């Protein structure tokens, strides 16, 4: 049965239920003061770039990369300045976005490589799976990187369709990086020079085919992860060289999507979110991005590794021209989308994300729902932020035991404390001046570590086992 058939049946079914029952399934904020026919559920589009720096967008301060479409998103929506991903590398960051959990909780703390028999457990509930139960058409277009084997691909995680590459574009394995449609390889090695344009065309086709809604489009771009590619029409256009050309091509892509929404008359029914999976790969120099004024980049738990540019646009729902400085994360998308779609987040497992609709909708006095945000390096908790304070935890050390003496108790080395409001670049360690803050944040870290250990779930394995 086609998606169109399903949509017609669903409409007929809603009519049979009656307006009252249909309205009961719609979130309160979508209802009028009086009983009315059920209104359409919102569409969601998440554009997720790869290795893009905090400053690599015009409205975030780029001096030499032009991003007029992203800047328009900021002018017509809200710019989030303290928006985090849950890891500073690819796989765990993507796992967090889709499951609403710290990647350590779903046992995907590090990058997966071709040949790995591990992937996102099919028992996990993703945003796509959650929305699909509410009648959403779902598609993933782009880089997946949560397991390249069939049980771990998007079509096993709530997506009706998939078009993209299963891992990073520098991971050459078995004949080169493959391009896949659903579960089949259709091109190997993938031609990368026009990949962004092909993703864009595929996205516009999906949006057009599902213009009656509701739909969820997850667009994790391949770039600006190295190696960098773009078509001739974008080469040499940016003052920032090839890296800037690639970003400006992604900006064009975003503009094409916004244009399609406007043309189809569904602009006001669609929430569009733009962000990146982690900070810039600084060692790639001119082929890497820039995270200024933040410190460091990819692989790091300094702000440059995990604080990302984020734009949210939904005409009439997300305020235009607003800047939000409250802590928010990619993990918050699952519970927030659930609220907006009239669904319930999973209750049989721990979900770390929070409903941030009050922040997104610009409610007066809205504050972050996060008491703290936790930064990991692999499985190790390395830093914690609460309010304006960020503590880099000192490593645990075990002093050497003297001969014939019992082993001494391990002790944590002194950490580094930063006031991010006054010192966004994490340059001035003020731990000695604020021992009370250090003690409070250390306690939060220890409590979270204990809680995570008790509620950790296994990754999936193709041999039927689990990875602890």
Q: Can you describe this structure?
A:
The chain has 468 residues and is an alpha/beta fold. It folds into two domains: 39-360, Alkaline Phosphatase, subunit A, CATH 3.40.720; 373-401 and 409-467, Arylsulfatase, C-terminal domain (2-Layer Sandwich), CATH 3.30.1120.10. It is built from eleven helices and 20 strands. Strands 1, 2, 4, 5, 6, 7, 8, 9, 10, 11 and 12 form an eleven-stranded mixed β-sheet that branches. Strands 13-14-15-18 form a four-stranded antiparallel β-sheet, with helices on one face. A three-stranded antiparallel β-sheet has the order 3-19-20, with no helix packed on it. A hairpin with a 4-residue loop joins strand 19 and strand 20 (466-467). The longest helix is centred in the middle third of the chain and has 23 residues, at 241-263. The radius of gyration is 22 Å and the shape is globular. The two termini are 39 Å apart. Mean pLDDT is 90; it is low at 1-36 and 464-468.
């Amino acid at each position: 049965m086609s998606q169109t058939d399903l949509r017609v049946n669903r409409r007929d079914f809603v009519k049979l239920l009656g307006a009252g029952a249909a309205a009961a399934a719609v979130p309160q904020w979508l209802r009028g003061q009086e009983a009315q026919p059920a209104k359409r559920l919102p569409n969601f589009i998440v554009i997720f770039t790869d290795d893009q720096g905090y400053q690599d967008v015009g409205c975030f301060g780029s001096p030499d990369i032009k991003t007029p479409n992203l800047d328009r998103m900021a002018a017509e929506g809200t710019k989030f300045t303290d928006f985090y991903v849950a890891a500073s590398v690819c796989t765990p960051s993507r796992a967090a976005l889709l499951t609403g959990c710290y990647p350590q909780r779903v046992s995907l703390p590090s990058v997966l490589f071709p040949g790995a028999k591990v992937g996102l457990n099919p028992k996990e509930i993703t945003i796509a799976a959650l929305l699909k139960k509410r009648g959403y058409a779902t598609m993933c277009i782009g880089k997946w990187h949560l397991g390249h084997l069939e049980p771990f691909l998007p079509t096993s995680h709530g997506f009706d369709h998939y078009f993209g590459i299963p891992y990073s574009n520098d991971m050459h394995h078995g004949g080169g990086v493959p391009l896949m449609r659903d579960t089949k390889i259709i091109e190997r090695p993938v031609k990368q020079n026009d990949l962004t344009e092909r993703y864009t065309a595929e996205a516009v086709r999906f949006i057009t085919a599902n213009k009656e809604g509701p739909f969820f489009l997850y667009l994790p771009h391949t770039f600006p992860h190295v190696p960098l590619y773009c078509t001739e029409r974008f080469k040499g256009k940016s003052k920032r060289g090839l890296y800037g050309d690639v970003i400006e091509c992604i900006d064009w892509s975003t503009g094409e999507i916004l244009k399609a929404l406007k043309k189809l008359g569904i602009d006001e029914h669609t929430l569009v979110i733009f962000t990146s999976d982690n900070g810039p790969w600084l060692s790639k120099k001119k082929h890497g991005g820039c995270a200024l004024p933040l410190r460091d980049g990819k692989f790091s738990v300094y702000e440059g590794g995990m604080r990302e540019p984020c734009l949210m646009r939904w005409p009439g729902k997300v305020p235009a021209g607003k800047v939000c400085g409250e802590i928010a994360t990619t993990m918050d998308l699952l519970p927030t989308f659930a609220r907006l779609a009239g669904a319930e987040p999973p209750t049989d497992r721990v979900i770390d994300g929070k409903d941030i609709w009050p922040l997104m909708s610009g409610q007066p006095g809205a504050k972050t729902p996060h008491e703290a945000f936790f930064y990991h390096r692999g499985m190790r908790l390395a830093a914690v932020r609460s309010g304006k304070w960020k503590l880099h935890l000192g490593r645990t050390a075990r002093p050497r035991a003297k001969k014939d003496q019992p082993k001494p108790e391990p002790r944590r080395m002194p950490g580094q404390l930063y006031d991010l409001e006054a010192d966004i670049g994490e340059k001035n360690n003020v731990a000695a001046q604020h021992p009370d803050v250090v003690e409070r944040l250390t306690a939060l870290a220890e409590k979270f570590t204990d809680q995570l250990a008790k509620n950790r779930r296994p990754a999936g394995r193709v041999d039927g086992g689990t990875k602890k």
